Amino acid sequence: MTLNGVFSKQRFRHASSVRLWTRLAAMVSAGAVLLLLAQVTTRDVHAIETIAREMILVDAATGTVLAEKEPDERMPPSSMSKLMTLYVAFELLRDGKLRLEDSFRVSEKAWRMGGSKMWVQVDTKVTVEELLKGIIIQSGNDACIVLAEGISGSEEAFAELLNKRAKEIGLAHSHFKNATGWPDPDHYMTARDLAILAYHLVNDFPDFYRVFSEKSYTYNKITQGNRNPLLYNYAGGDGLKTGHTEEAGYGLTASAIRDGRRLILVVNGLAGVNERARETERLLDIGFNEFKNYFIFKAGERVYDMPVWLGTSDVVPAVVPNDIVVTLPKRASKSVSIRVVAPGPAHAPVAKDSKIAKLVISAPDFGPIESKLVAGASVEEVSGFGRIGPAISRLFSGD
To answer: How would CATH label the architecture of 18-293?
Structure first.
């Protein structure tokens, strides 16, 4: 049984409030994000060209991929992989296994570490709060090592912890050899994995995430500015992390929120800081200007009256178990097809909340989204003589 039709324009309500985004983000589980990032993609994602070597642009509320380029290719993530170090630290803080006021001693290894630095001093103690700001704002390699050694005893042991947690949260194509993103042939991520990680940081740790928008931090009388260009020139830019090595080029795992709608963008392999800033802003503008989020159904809303065979009721309401929100190109919002697909009448008995059909939503240049429809009520099976009439009717109708 397939019902085709184009819903009225009134059905598509623009989802644009901050409260709405917060509710949607809370609704989407980690597993759902992985599924959406992998499967819900505009068909013309490759039509949005970029000079980045790797790129992915994602709507954070629905997980819809708006644009991508080599999103699953292994790449050196440089300092962007510090986001995984931060994720592990945030988890420990959330679970009470680490406190912001805890302090760790600076080893000679950390003090001698090259690259971007927080400028910690050997044999001094630094608090976890200071280290986190040194990593997020100053991109301190030395701060990463102090934190890693303080948590796990050594950077090598901490890398094992990173790999364990990465697999558990669905980073299927990442491997960590250190806490900093220092070049190593066995240290790699993908743009898609970075987007998933960014989603978790934004959604799972909103209190800690605020630090990503701080523009400068002073430690040891040295003030350093945040390298994220979005914080200075882009409305709504509030995270996350830049990266650069000779092999990786210039990269940015970015997030911005505008009119309550959040996008996540990962770019890598750019030629310089100016090119990185321009390309990041251009791609985010495309995401905000050419796409919108639309409510289609609210949780519990009846979509269709499903016929019931041999039931105490002739029909059962088919309802959506969760809010359904889709990200669509603006040009496609008037040409959306919503279909109810079912194998035939439901057979009594029907249990409330059991799956009885599916909803298929599609639009031009937009991959279909499927959502289950469940029974909005229970329907008992008729017995005895009550079964005779329907059975005869079905026999002669051939249904």
So the answer is: 3-Layer(aba) Sandwich (3.40)
Closest by alpha carbon to 137, among 220, 241, 234?
Answer: 241
State which residues of the chain have pLDDT below 50.
1-12, 16-36, 38-40, 395
Catalytic positions, written as ranges: 79, 82, 139
Question: What pLDDT, in 10s, does the model give residues 331-344?
Answer: 877 788 889 998 88
298-397 CATH: 2.60.410.10
Give the end-to-end CA distance of the chain in Å, rounded to a whole number: 12
CA separation for the pair 219, 216 (Å, rounded): 10
pLDDT of residue 8: 32
